[in-house]
Design brief:
With 279 residues, the chain is an all-alpha fold. It folds into 2 domains: 9-59, no CATH class; 64-274, Orthogonal Bundle (MetI-like fold), CATH 1.10.3720. Helix content is 80%, strand content 0%.
Length: 279
């Protein structure tokens, strides 16, 4: 018994060392970016890996003002919430229709939604851009918001369909007996019960749209209408920015989604726990 326990302890030690190695490898790129953002160009040349000896904020000032990232961040803070609202409306409505309503061609249409999940973004980008151009929405906020909704909605629709399908159908029948229509059932009954999943999809959609590049690159051709991610991608080619400035731009770009995730992750956990206790 002692030998078996010693072997088990040895394996546990190896697993812990392996996991610590994965954590180190995962954190190392983030550390390099943050550390480089506080270094001058001269210090980065002689000290590319260790913490900065003379921290400076000049890189952040240049990235925010000189490279116009502050302006692009405002654009993202306007466009992304609009895209998330459209995304949630489509996903929740379509998920309820596929999960709880019975109509002709329901299964074939749902299979089409699943089929759209397999296409990579770069393959669809040019076709969506052609549709946006035909609707005369190129270089407009409506064009990029619609493209985000069109590309990301199949995934959210699939998630909400499975979530609504797992709910008891008696909820819908009881509401229908009380004279409620399907839109009213969706808004007043099903959506509140699915609030944790809707919040989760909101976070996923926010982060996906915040980091989205191909659609923004094709549709938002005017420099003043760029999103923050597009501005960071174009900064090096237009302004010839160095690594410390580019690192500062990357840190600026990840602050908002990181804070958004940390804040709303706790609310999702609390909401799911409260729902389980009530049930």
């Amino acid at each position: 018994m002692k030998r078996a326990s010693s072997i088990g302890a040895g394996w546990r030690g190896l697993v812990q060392v392996f996991l610590l190695g994965l954590i180190f490898v995962s954190i190392l790129p983030l550390y390099n970016v943050v550390a480089a953002s506080f270094k001058s160009t001269d210090e980065f040349v002689v000290n590319p890996f260790f913490p900065p000896l003379a921290p400076t904020l000049e890189n952040y000032v240049y990235a925010a003002v000189g490279a116009r990232l502050l302006h692009y961040a405002v654009n993202s803070l306007i466009l992304v919430p609009l895209g998330v609202v459209l995304y949630l409306v489509v996903c929740v409505s379509a998920g309820y229709a596929f999960g709880k309503m019975r109509f002709r061609l329901r299964l074939p249409l749902f299979l089409v939604v699943l089929f759209l999940l397999i296409f990579p973004q770069l393959l669809l980008a040019t076709q969506i851009y052609r549709l946006i151009s035909l609707m005369h929405l190129a270089n407009t906020a409506a064009g990029v918001v619609l493209s985000w909704g069109a590309y990301f909605s199949p995934f959210g629709t699939y998630i909400m369909t499975t979530y609504f399908a797992a709910m008891p159908y008696e909820l819908v029948e009881a509401a229908r007996m009380d004279g409620a229509s399907h839109p009213r059932i969706l808004v007043q009954v099903m959506t509140p019960l699915a609030a944790p999943m809707v919040a989760t999809l909101g976070i996923i959609g926010f982060q996906s749209m915040w980091n989205e590049l191909p659609f923004s690159l094709l549709i938002l051709q005017d420099q003043g209408s760029r999103t923050l991610t597009l501005g960071i991608a174009m900064a090096r080619g237009e302004y010839g920015v160095r690594v410390p400035i580019l690192s500062a731009a990357v840190v600026i770009g990840m602050v908002v989604p990181l804070v958004f995730f940390l804040v709303f992750q706790r609310r999702i956990t609390l909401g799911a726990t409260a729902g389980a206790l009530k049930g």
